[in-house]
Each structure stands twice: as structure tokens, then as C-alpha cells.
Known about the structure:
single chain, alpha+beta, Rossmann fold, Isoleucyl-tRNA Synthetase, domain 2, 5 domains, 7-stranded mixed β-sheet, 6-stranded antiparallel β-sheet, 35 strands, 34% helix, disordered N terminus, RNA-binding
Amino acid sequence: MAGFTxxxxxGKDYDFHEIEPRWQSFWEQQRSFRASEDAGKPxxxxxxxxxxxxxxxxxxxxxxxxxxxxxLARYKRARGFRVLHPxxxxxxxxxxxxxxxxxxxxPAANTQNNIANFRRxxxxxxxxxxxxxxxxxxDPRYFRWTQWIFLQLFRRGLAYVDERPVWWCxxxxxxxxxxxxxxxxxxxxxxxxxxxNLRQWVLRITAYADRLLSGLEGLxxxxxxxxxxxxxxxxxxxxxxxxxxxxxxxGPLTVFTTRPDTLFGATYMVVAPEHALVDSLTTxxxxxxxxxxxxxxxxxxxxxxxxxxxxxxxxxxxxxxVNPANGQRIPIWVADYVLTGYGTGAIMAxxxxxxxxxxxxxxxxxxxxxxxxxxxxxxxxxGLTLPYTGDGRLIHSDxxxxxxxxxxxxxxxxxxxxxxxxxxxVNYKLRDWLFSRQRYWGEPIPIVWxxxxxxxxxxxxxxERLPKEPVSFSQDGALFYALPVPESVLPLELxxxxxxxxxxxxxxxxxxxxxxxxxxxxxxxxxxxxASGPRPSLQWVRARRExxxxxxxxxxxxxxxxxxxPADTRALASPEALQxxxxxxxxxxxxxxxxxxxxxxxxxxxxxxxxGIVPTDEPFRxxxxxxxxxxxxxxxxxxxRGNVVSPDTLIASHGSDSxxxxxxxxxxxxxxxxxxxxxxEGVHRFLQKLWRDLVGEDGRxxxxxxxxxxDAPEFQRVLHETLRKVGEDIEAMRFNTAISQMMIxxxxxxxxxxxxxxxxxxxxxxxxxxxxxxxxxxxxxxxAPGRAADxxxxxxxxxxxxxxxxxxxxxxxxxxxxDQLVPVGLAQxxxxxxxxxxxxxxxxxxxxRVVKVVYVPGRILNLVVA
RNA sequence: GCCCGGGUGGCGGAAUGGUAGACGCUUCGGACUUAAAAUCCGAUUUCCGCAAGGAAGUGUCGGUUCGAGCCCGGCCCCGGGCACCA
Length: 866
């Protein structure tokens, strides 16, 4: 034993207060868990969703997932893998900014304090992270590459600006994304929000919709998560159909429908209040009513337009369209149950076969024509309850009547396409990703805005750095064009500001830093100088910096790549590192990220794949969600309920090994489960008992642990069963049953008078991933060489697991009537004979005839009697 | 409304279609102690029984099977997600 092995703790008691910090500092000093880059070993990359380092500190939910991945990381190392197991900080975020607004101190200061606290808490749990690879999304050396990725998106035409209605929170004076608005209030803070149009950066994630959907198939993810992503993407196949208008000058009114087969049942049309043709379609007589309706719709929040819109409303425009199937004149209505953002913002209404259209038609007494009836329906649509949305064949549809609806859908689409009035079409619910925030504490978007003439002048020299279609917006009659900042000046850092409060005009605090925002800009070098100063030379152009910053999702979209090569200054990660580590083999985190984070990261990853930067087109092959830990009362933990359990408190009272064990013993990792404050006593007692059985009065090996002792066969059986089961359970992430089995072995050990040292050491090895401090400490006390963590995983001996005798259960007509120890491999005849002689069984056979024998060797013998 | 997941002792939970309740908590009894804590030993699904033993039992109703917590169908309850996406 080298170096460190002087026993600091000589005590005979299990003193975790001394043991745990001792091993933690040992690991820290030795940097024991640096990822081995030995290419001769198979790699295993196990990733946790990195936390947002909040001021509240670690929540009990964090170490739940982290313990699971740590067990896997330690287990895989023992199995000969080179393991990448990193940790970092998703540190941009609103709370830090709000804190900065309140205190006037830079958000980075508070963020670094929180990180330090999180790091301390995480280290106190003894996780085997490679701390040399820690990443921090707010570190300019990190977000330099977040910005770099943005520039790649920009140049590929995947980033654009758009004036669009977004949630505006007057209280925070900032814009919120849809996902931050819950029930018409801000998710953080619970403030009222309203709609407001603002210029926004948007990422064209819809361009990847199909690949994001089809890519799900090969992933080892929870089905529910895959389903959620699929329904979020919401692909639907149908057709765009042109309806002629009575005023030909307007062109056609185009709708999207998934049911072209119901075209003959279209009895009216609906356009969204924001539809471009509403004005032209409105007749003078209807003008007042339509204008009033549109005004009311505009002032409604999304909440009112969706959740509360139990009763559909609308107004007639006064115009008619022509059904291309039968030439019928059908009225065009405006109604807010049709959404602007989906399809064409207009629909053909088929009340007989759509619940929403049916409801609307009833309310406004519009005609209802059934054109599909169930196949097994014998009458001609009489007695059919409408709306009918099920399977069936067509009726009242000239030329298509009698066809199954799926076939009719194909034929009608094809026939209309032939005439040039329809096209097969695919639509997605997925919308482009709003990618800007009017906030200070985020990655600055590396863009400057210049006038049209300047853009033309410099565009040629920028070549590939620009998208094919320029990104521009107009303001007060002038056009502004987006120029990317050259990669050479990245990172583009946040300038100091007087106040962190958003400007209040819809821009971030950056808008107030005049010398930073309004600049003379050199497009070649990317250098900016205050516009208040003189123009350095004619090469420089007048520019305004982008004042939006990126949303919090940005940094978490690619952090798993940075871990492979966290200090690289030439690339987000070197091709060698990306080759060496690839993508995570396992990703563990909460189901609350099932859609957004995981979808956004997949999107960026696919773009990076298309750029040839990453070797795979999916980032997370295998995903696992740990379940939430509820409070003692079965409710979600929250400060207001006063049911929050703190890791710090538990480490102080029972130690981190006990906490780790209990977190895993609570129940299946994926299950939602309540915290039981008494429960941790159980696993703590298990460790204490084991200590007393292995460590003697002198603080060294217990006298019952004997080198070379012959272990009792039953003890050997339990030991090898444990070696087998713990390994299998870790692989399957069934940590709770692995711990049960170790407790069974602990109980068996306790009953033995003498056990071999080898058996004790094997036990410690399988325990080590769960309770690493304890295992190392006892390993050393027993005088074993090296570290438990470095010893190869103990193999189990199948021959020792098998018992020579098994308990065979006798059943009569499927009911348990007795049992008996029998030799393994007992023949059926012998088993039947034993049952026939068994005192408990014979009464049930009395006077009966055995008509069937079911024999499962080693398990049951079932005699079916008549 | 639609799509998932789940209902097992006082509690958390175990159970390749083969002894339901492993393991732990709780509670009760015993040992040790002046005493308590800790520790150790034992019991702990319900009902009947002094006992031996018997009967019932995995939300509910039915089905498949020699045998169902597990498979199939209906219903009830709980949790999660989506929610005018045409």
C-alpha cells in the first residue's frame, strides 16, 4: 500500500463524518476519476442533465439521478471501460438576472457563488466526476462556441428575424417564450402577461421536423417521451386545396385539410381573424361586424382564445367561395377557432365529420352534409350520429361514393392536383423556435445591423458567412441587414451596464450601453468603436449591435459535446476528442425536459452533423428519466409546503453513503416516490452492521474475517447470487433490488462465524459503486491492496449459485397443498410419487383420479384431479 | 376530450405465467442495561382457531390457462402529457 494509506481513522466505530471527507479529499488530490483516454478500452460516456445552479442550493432530486449515473460510472470502470462522467453548470438564467436587478451586482458574481455552493454540495456526495472537464455556460470560453454555432445556423439560413406576437410581461418588462407562460401567467413569478409584437430571432427548427420525427425510431428512450416529441412535432398529411372566390382578382382561398375525402361535405369555410384576405373578403354590409370581431380577437390572449373558448364564435364575411368538387357556393366566415399559425390559416369546414366544425355549424345554423358512413352501416346515412369521425366509405360524393375514405383521400387529392387546384401537403404543429430574449444575462447574439447600402457593399467579401437570403427587417421605413460578427472576435462578451433592468422598450439592458450598441464597425475585423467618436476610415460602417441575447436553452444544446474536450480553443471540441468519446451512451435527467431541451439539442446536433462536425446524427442514444421524489406527505416538495428535504442535512445526520443508498433504495429509479424520513435509518443500519461484522475492536479486520477460510456452502451461494444480481441489476438500472440483495448478503454475513477475506472483499467491491467511501475505508481496514474502485469487478461462479436441493411445491388443481425439499433435477415420476406420499397432499387426492400432471422441475408439481 | 403510466400489507416496495408480500420502515414481544438509547433475537396481510391447521386476499367485473399481481376485454380511481393544429 502506497502513500496515502496511513490510517487517519483508527476508530472502531463507523464514523462517516471522518471517513467521507477523507476519501473525498483523497479522490480530489489524486484526481482519481479523470477520464482515461486509453483507446484500448471500450468507452462509456454517462451524462447527467447539468443543473441550473440556483441560489436555493441542491434539491434532493438532483442527487437521485446523479447517484444512479455515479453507480453506473463506477461499475463500468470496474468492468474495464474508460468512463467519461462529467458535470457542469447551465448557469445563464432569469433568477440570477433578477437578483442582479435587485442588488445591482453583476449576475456573474451571484452565479459564481451559486456554482461554488453547488459544487461543494455535489462533491460532498462523493460522485466520481472528472472535475477537470467542468463546463460553465456563462464562461466566455464556453459561450464563444455557443455563439459560433449560432453563426453556423445563421449562415445556413436557419436563423432569421421576424416580427411576431410574443408574450410580453409588463411586470418583468421582458418577453417570455410560450413554455414560460402557464395559464396566462409567467411561469416564474406568476405575473400577468399580454401579447405584443416584437422583432425576434427565430431558428428554423421546422426545416428539420421530418428528421427529428424519423430519428426517434432508433432511439432507446422511454416510449412516452418519444410519443411526446412525436406529438409535439405533430406531423399530419393532407392536401392544400384552392377554393375559387367570386372576385377572381383575389386569387384562390387555399386551405389545408387532412381529409380531402370529405370535400363534398364542405358546407362553409373559415379564415382566421388575422388571415391576409379577411379585409378583401369582407363586404360593406359585414364590414362593421367583421372589424369588431377582429378587434375583439386581437385583444384576447391565447388563453382566452383556446382554453376559455368553450363556445365558438365567428362572423360571416359576406363572401362566398366555390367548392372545387361540386361547384357549390359556400359562405366564408371569420372565426378564431382557426389559427393563423397552422396550415394556411383557413379551413374548409366539414361539420358532419369534424367536431369543431359541427359545433360551429350548429351554433350558426350552417348546413351539415354527411359524406362518410361506417362500413358496417346498412342504411344511407340515416340514423348516423354526427359528427362522425370514424372509419367508413363515402356517400353523396359524385364519382367517389362507395370508396373507403383512405382511398377517396388519395383519389380526390390526385384528381384535384391534376386540375391544378390542390397539392398533397404535410403540416407540422412544430413552430420555429423563438431564440431571443430581451434580457442582459444571456449569450449576446453575434450580429450587427447595418443599412442596405453598407450591406451591399460588404456582402460580397463575406461570402459563405452570409445566408443566401439576407436577414433583414424594416423600421421607420428603413431596411436593416444582419451581418455576422467574424468568428475571430468571438466570444462577444457582455459589456458592463449601469442597470440590469431591461430597457423597458422591449429591448434588453444592452440597448442602454450606447457606446457598445451604436458603433462604427469594421466588417473585416469585426472590431467596433463608439459611433460617438469619429469614423476611423471609409472601410468602417455605421452599425447597431443586436441587443437580444440567447435563451437559456442555447448553452444546454451542446454541452455534452464540450465535455469531450472542454478546454479546446480552436473548436467546440477537437475531431479526435469527438471520435474518442462520441455521444453519451446514457443520458439521465428529469422528464420535464422530455420535449423542449431534448428536441432543441437534437436539432442543433443534426445541424452539426450536417456540417460534418459530429460523427452521429443523434446526440442521446439512450435516455432515462428519474422519477420525482415527493415530500413525506406525498406532495411535490416546495418551500411553501415545508416538506423540502435537504441533502446537506442528511449528509450531516447519516452520511453521504447512507443518503446515496437510500435514494436508490426508495423504489424504482423511474418511479415517483415519497420521501420517508425513517427509511434512511434502514440503510444506515445496514452499513453500521456491516462495519461491525467486518471491522474489529482494533479498527482492523474483524476476527471472523479470515484469510483463506473455507466459506459455508450456503454463504457462498448467497455471495455468488449477490455478485450475479448486483451486476445484472446495475446494468438494468434496478438499483433498489440490488441493494435488497446486498442486505440479504449482509444478513447472511452477520450469521456466519467465519468468512474468508476474499468473500468480504468481493462484497465490498459490489457495494463500492453505491457506498464508495464506506467500501474504500473497509477495504483498507482489511488490508487489501490498492483501492476497491480499482479492482476488477468480481465474477460470480454459476456453480456456486446453484443449490443441490430445491423446494418443490405440490399443487392440486392449482392450489398450494404442500412442499418438500427435493434434489435438483428430480424426474417427474419421482416427484409424483413424493406428492402422493405427502401427508398434506394425500387428503386432496383421496378418491380422485389424476387426469393431468404439470411438472416444472424445481418449481411446482401440479396434479389436476377429477 | 385525446394519448400515456399506475392501483399489491399500517408505509416504501419485491415477485422469467409457477409458494404473493423479498428487502426495508413501522409496530409489538423478548434479551442486554440501575434505566434509557443503541444493539441483538423473534413476530408483524386479513379472518377463524388454544394449537395443529384452514379460509380469503394484488382497484373492480368478466375471460384465457393445469395455474393470473403478471396475458385479454369492460368499468372505477389516481398521476403525467397534450388540448380548437383542421
